Amino acid sequence: MLTLRTSLLRMTAPTLDLMAVVLAYWLAFWLRFDGQVHVAHIHQFWLFFLAIPLLRVAANAAWGLYQHVWRYLGVREAMAVAISTATGTTAFAFLLYLTSNASFPRSIVAIEAVLSLVFMGGSRFMLRYWHEMQPVSRSADETRVLVIGAGDAGEMLVREMLRQPERGLRPIGFLDDRSDKRGMRIHGVPVVGDSRAVAETVERLRVDLVVLAMPSAPAREQRDILKRCAATPAKVQIVPALHEIVTGTVSISHLRDIQIEDLLGRDPVVIDSSLLGYLKGKRILVTGAGGSIGSELCRQLVTLGAKQLIMLDHHEHAVYQIDQELQSQAPLGVTIVPVVADVRDAGRLQQLFAAHRPQVVFHAAAHKHVPLMEASPAEAAQNNVLGTLALATAALDHGVESFLLVSTDKAVRPTSIMGKTKRLAELTLQDLAGRHPDGTKFLAVRFGNVLGSRGSVVPLFRSQLAKGGPLTVTHAEMTRYFMTIPEAVTLVLQTGALGRSGEVLMLDMGEPVRILDLARNMIKLSGLREDDVEIVFTGMRPGEKLYEELLVTTEGTRPTEHPQVFAARAPKPPDARWWYDLVARLREAVACHSDEAVRSLLDGAIAQDQSRPPTQDLTRTARQEEAL
């Protein structure tokens, strides 16, 4: 039935055009001679009576006008009619030239062209107008929609809502901060105010759904608007950023609920493909490959042209999971090697490096849970410090080109065992870089919390919300830096091409977020009111700080080639004798499982580290080498 209807429409369109052109041709003569067509010109009229309509229809067919669905008439379709008309007119003029009919009024050509354009274009416009004016049957339970953003994205959304009433979405107004749009209408929907009036507008117009349709707006502006929207009783949805929409055309199907990431107000991560060239064709080792950061590193590395990806983790099931995921996704030519091993086992690491000869190492394996490490200092030191030393030594021994340690903002002026061990891991790389300036390039990169990682507060809040609460917050003023896992890893991969050996790099984490605000926003995003879920303050845990830093005051920074990555002007490498004595004593304390001895050594090491003067030269001096 649908095929028959389509065939009839395709037959009707040329017929209508033939009628329109005949009328245009006759009117052209009538207008040219003010309604008094002489007998001599009637002969000329009949001379081209059949030729002109056939030329027009042929031109229309050549330009594909009979393949358009004219109920969706737009600028492209209107341009096609104009181009087809110009083509037909040119053919008409050429026909006159061939027939050498000097007595035929040339003005007829121009008049007929204008009238044909009006009639053929007008008939198509009337078809769309007739369709748009058809009465729409709306259900009583339709959703009243307020769209924030009267730009291209908002216009496309409203147009689709009006065309598809069966979806039950009824646009009732726009909000836009441009004053020149105030009071205007788009597809009959009025612009009723600016985004600051969202609460009042939701109440006045009985809005059920607020849609933020500003995909190209700065992230901070979107965050501020979303916070105002979240304070209303209406449901809130958002149009994703333009780079997330492959087609470039916004549709109702693109709408999604707001997520906690949307409220961070972070600008999109800049991807500089020139900084990823060092990974192409390389053998790459990722430690902690089954963890949150390590697994995302593996996912992104398989798409960047690596020759071989060696995924190391001591957690058997975690390695199995990421291996099963990537084996089916890896492009041809990429070899994936799952390895169950422990970074604390120096002999196993040497054997692994000799067998697979990795050229780039990303060291993401670490004990990260602050309260647990407070209770297990020896375990933290063995894994985070001695494990890093064993891995970095193996990398140096086997000629690895680049070694990047995933560090943390908790390594800055550390108060926790975890933070102290991660700072010593950074010092481990500085020591090796200073003693072997022509060897492996050692870098560390610091960043804050990642949303959704194991041990992160976000999964904890989600679990607590699923149980009906309460949400536990340690302190009302506690703040943290947050970043999504994919964007953190994207930046980490690019940092490998930046900095000098021994440097500590930092990611632009945006603005710190209050944990209390995060809890309140997650309550709202779950569709509840703040009064529905209790928030309980539990007090700060051992080793925690109210706020984290990415930089020690004495370090300072310098910019890199990437606008979202900075390099710390780090202190000079640790004194050779002091450093080797510390490592030896730390090994002994760990071997004896003496938590108190480890805690004392870490405290002394951090105090010594913070007293060292800064320098940009990380190379050992001759005197330091002699001391060895």
Explain the overall architecture:
With 628 residues, this protein is an alpha/beta fold. It has three domains: 131 residues, no CATH class; 116 residues, NAD(P)-binding Rossmann-like Domain (Rossmann fold), CATH 3.40.50; 258 residues, 3-Layer(aba) Sandwich (Rossmann fold). The chain is 45% helix and 14% strand. The chain contains 20 helices and 22 strands. It has a nine-stranded mixed beta sheet, with helices on both faces. It has a seven-stranded mixed beta sheet with strand order 3-4-2-1-5-6-7, with helices on both faces. Strand 5, helix 8 and strand 6 form a beta-alpha-beta unit. Helix 13 packs across helix 18. The N and C termini lie far apart (90 Å). The N terminus and C terminus are likely disordered.
Q: What is the number of E strands?
A: 22
User: What structural class results from the helix and strand content?
Assistant: alpha/beta
> Nearest-angstrom radius of gyration?
35 Å
| Low-pLDDT stretches | 1-9, 242-248, 615-628
Helix content: 40-55%
CATH topology of the largest domain: Rossmann fold
Name the beta content range: 5-15%
Structure keywords:
alpha/beta; Rossmann fold; nine-stranded mixed β-sheet; 22 strands; 45% helix; elongated
